[in-house]
Amino acid sequence: MKRARANAPQRLPIRAAAGAALVVGMGLLSAWAFAQRTEGSAGAAAAPAAPGVAAAGGAPGPSADPLVERGRYLARVADCVSCHTAPGGAPFAGGLPMKTPFGTIVSTNITPDRNAGIGTYSEADFARALRQGVAADGHHLYPAMPYPSFARTTDADIRALYAFFQKGVEPVATRPTPTDLPFPFSIRGLMVFWNWLYLDSAPYAQQAAQSAEWNRGAYLVQGLGHCGDCHTPRSRLGGVKAANERDGDPFLAGALVDGWYAQPLRHTDRPGAVQWRTQDIVEYLQTGRTAQTAAFGPMVQVVENSTQHMTAEDLKAIAVYLQSVGAPAPGATAGPASPSALRAAATDTPEAKKLRDGQVDGVPGSMVYLNNCSACHRSSGVGWDNTFPALAGNSVVNAKDPTSLIRLVLGGSAMPSTARSPAAIAMPAFGWRLSDADVAEVLSFARRSWGNRADAVTAAQVAAVRKTAQAPAEPTSPAR
Ligand code: HEC
Ligand code: HEC
Ligand code: HEC
Fold first, then answer.
1. pLDDT tens readout for residues 201-246
2. How much distance in Å is there from the Cα of 274 to the middle of ligand 2?
């Protein structure tokens, strides 16, 4: 992957163009913009941009107009509120600063106020903003606004969203500080090049060979749900490497976002979420947890503000679609063992027996595990259902990229609080008491025990994450 990234610019037709360097800058900028949107807040704990917004839906009570209610639902699917609400601010009034190394991009007010918001937008203006990234006055939006995904939205859904944003949202007259990036990033016209490379503004096209459920899932994942904005790796120019399953292996193959690793949502050579039971994926998106695992990092906000509000049918459609992506051909050699099979076998592994007997000599990391982790995750690594995730067979523990693991251990984390599962059960931070070498050892131990098979973690990797994530210096329960 590294090599592909390094080579990417050479393959681009605009390489010779005079503005190429600027375009590269713009692309990186957009990647950063997205990647850092919760910057300045302590990881998962920080997630909800506006606590309470999820429940309120950001609107004056339910409307009698079914079109407005349909739009309210779609706005939750798209999670418009998370980006367009400042911490503690009015829903959709904008003002969330998204820090980038090039300056700060501030989200705009999308309430129907005629001066500060989008009250004067026609439906056509609104459609153009969502599908082409162009505001009503003609200026180009930065792709921190996920219009390349929203472009998949059908006319009918755009109409419902428009109705909601005009009639279902309280107008707010405050104008957020305008985004003012330094030159050359201030030249919004550069986005024309970027859009030429990355924007396909055609709405989702139904695939006749697939079921209605599959198509619904594909529509939600690729479009309003914009799952790939976090879960698909980006090219050097900041565009996602694949926008749908037909674009090949990079689609939903896992990517770093906001200093966390967004897990692969497709079949790979490791145990992954797509091997869970379909119902487990639905439950995870509804409650942020399953018997074996729990959401953390930026996924906490996605569950709290967006997926927990989706219907069971839509979540099942999403699961069915995801489980088809990259699926091995029938009869192909067996893929990786499933997470549940690994967990079921974990209790009888030699590691589990040794830990139970307190034998930690000569096994690096096992002493650190016994002293710090086994009380919750148990000597067998199977955890406790819906409370403490299983480490055996866990897709996060087996992930190629250990960034999330390191960050969790250094800084701790809390599960999402949802209507169905309100308890935000937390894992404590260990960064204040474990050295880089300790963390590397205990994670390496977890990654090769109880049937897990993943590469060791090095102290240098831990040190690098510690630098960027700023683990708490003292014991704190993860702030929420
Ligand atoms: C991942 C973050 C994110 C999400 C999700 C998001 N937006 Fe945005 N949006 C932004 C940012 C950032 C801007 C400002 C971009 C700029 O100034 O170039 C923006 C700008 C806009 C604008 C242009 C307003 C103007 O006149 O300046 C509209 C309209 C808009 N968003 C609507 C929506 C709607 C509707 C949704 C949900 C369907 C949504 N956005 C979801 C980040 C987001
Ligand atoms: C803002 C970024 C972001 C968006 C948008 C996002 N995710 Fe995630 N997601 C993450 C991160 C980071 C993780 C890793 C944390 C974890 O596993 O809990 C994750 C984890 C997951 C997992 C668990 C994977 C595993 O192996 O444990 C599932 C399932 C998932 N996401 C589904 C989705 C779906 C479906 C969508 C779109 C509706 C979506 N995500 C949108 C960031 C995001
Ligand atoms: C007090 C109980 C507790 C202790 C002690 C504890 N954890 Fe956790 N752990 C949790 C909880 C709760 C979560 C879920 C957090 C979330 O989703 O935000 C978790 C999540 C995890 C995860 C992510 C699994 C997933 O599917 O989400 C890993 C990996 C992990 N812990 C490893 C460790 C390691 C290694 C140690 C010892 C250094 C440790 N934990 C100590 C409670 C604990």
1. 899 999 999 999 999 999 999 999 999 999 999 988 788 999 999 9
2. 12
Nearest atom within ligand 3 for CA of residue 434:
38
- CATH fold, domain 339-469, is Cytochrome Bc1 Complex; Chain D, domain 2 (1.10.760)
What's the pLDDT tens digit per position in 344-399? Answer: 889 999 999 999 998 888 889 999 999 999 999 999 999 999 899 999 999 999 99
Alpha-carbon distance values, 251 to 43, 166, 241, 242, 296 (Å): 25, 34, 7, 5, 22
b/e code 450-476 from CB counts within 10 Å (16+ = b): bbbebeebeeebbeebbeebebbeeee
22 pLDDT higher than 60: no
Q: From the CB of 54, is ligand 3 less than 6 Å away?
A: no
Euclidean distance between CA atoms 426 and 412, whole angstroms: 7
Q: What is the pLDDT of residues 255-286, one digit of tens each?
A: 998 889 999 999 998 889 999 999 999 999 99
pTM of the model: 0.89
β-pair partners for 94: 85
Of 82, 107, 230, the one to substitute when testing ligand 2's pocket (max ligand atoms within 8 A of C-beta) is 230
* Closest by CA position to 463, among listed 396, 425, 407: 407
Residue 188 alpha carbon, nearest atom of ligand 1: 18
Cα(194) to centroid(ligand 2), Å: 26
Query: 79: left (phi > 0), else alpha (psi -120 to 50), else beta?
Result: left
Ranges of each domain in the chain: 21-197, 339-469
